[in-house]
Specification:
alpha/beta, seven-stranded parallel sheet, 8 helices, globular
């Protein structure tokens, strides 16, 4: 299937590893040029070099922290300097610390808001004028299954990723007339560093092993296993495509059936 994005420009945040990297690799395999950003310059450079060699597309890598406006500005400017546009935006970030309500000071809430919500808002603000002018665009926000079924111990993530969902659903209606779609993708338990961290936190809290934490999650998933980043990235590539032109305002889970709700 030709997804119709060859030659398009995709900006993918937090793309040096995990889900962000998998999405970048999938978009590059479809012929999209890339602007990648992450805080760690060395890992980001290695990822960019690997994608250039494997896919033969143009890749710009920018070490930046998109929880800060200066980081958002530097990434957006790099995209405009090299390509003059961004057609596809994928907002993604590492997760905030796990913990209960009582464990977080106001500063933790402010940091999580910048990391999860304001990064998505700021990056969208940076690319939308050009998308509107060209009357084509795709915005994808990587959120979490927690927006539909909150996960115990993830107070910050449950709260702020739900805020991203509300932002995206409202924005989708505002920009639909410009042929711009806005969708959210909800990863379930997937083999990433973030899930390794959650397993470690769970094992420390419960006094069990990390293997026990993984086994518990696998029992909760109807498919009986954790997902792989490439399985998640396949949906992202489709939603970024020309073929997905009538899908907007949706929040779609890639979770092996973990969410039990009807909608």
């Amino acid at each position: 299937m030709d997804l119709g994005i060859r030659g398009k420009v995709a900006l993918v945040s937090a793309s040096s590893k995990g889900l962000g990297r998998a999405i970048a690799e999938e978009l590059a395999a479809e012929g999209a040029n890339l602007v990648l950003c992450a805080r760690g310059a060395d890992a980001l450079r290695q990822t960019a070099d690997s994608i250039r060699k494997s896919a033969g597309v143009t890749v710009v890598d920018v070490a930046a922290d998109v929880s800060e406006q200066a980081g958002i500005d530097s990434v957006a400017q790099a995209a405009l300097d090299k390509f003059g546009k961004v057609d596809i935006l994928v907002t993604n970030s590492g997760g905030p610390p796990s913990g209960s309500f009582d464990s977080f000071a106001p500063e933790a809430w402010e940091q999580a808001t910048r990391l999860l919500l304001m990064s998505a808002v700021g990056l969208s603000r940076a690319v939308l004028p050009g998308m509107k002018e060209r009357r084509w665009g795709r915005i994808l926000n990587v959120t979490s299954i927690a927006v539909k079924q909150p996960i115990e111990g993830l107070m910050l993530s449950n709260s702020l990723r739900a805020a991203v969902t509300g932002f995206a659903r409202t924005l989708a209606n505002e920009v639909a007339r410009f042929n711009i779609t806005v969708n959210n993708i909800l990863p379930g338990y997937t083999r990433t560093d973030r899930v390794e961290h959650l397993a470690r936190a769970t094992s420390e809290k419960s006094g069990t092993s990390m293997a026990d934490a993984f086994a518990k999650w696998e029992r909760e998933i109807p498919m009986g296993r954790l997902g792989e980043p490439r399985e998640f990235a396949a949906l992202a590539a489709f939603l970024a495509s020309e073929r997905a032109s009538y899908i907007t305002g949706s929040s779609i889970a890639v979770d092996g059936g973990w969410i039990r709700s009807l909608l």
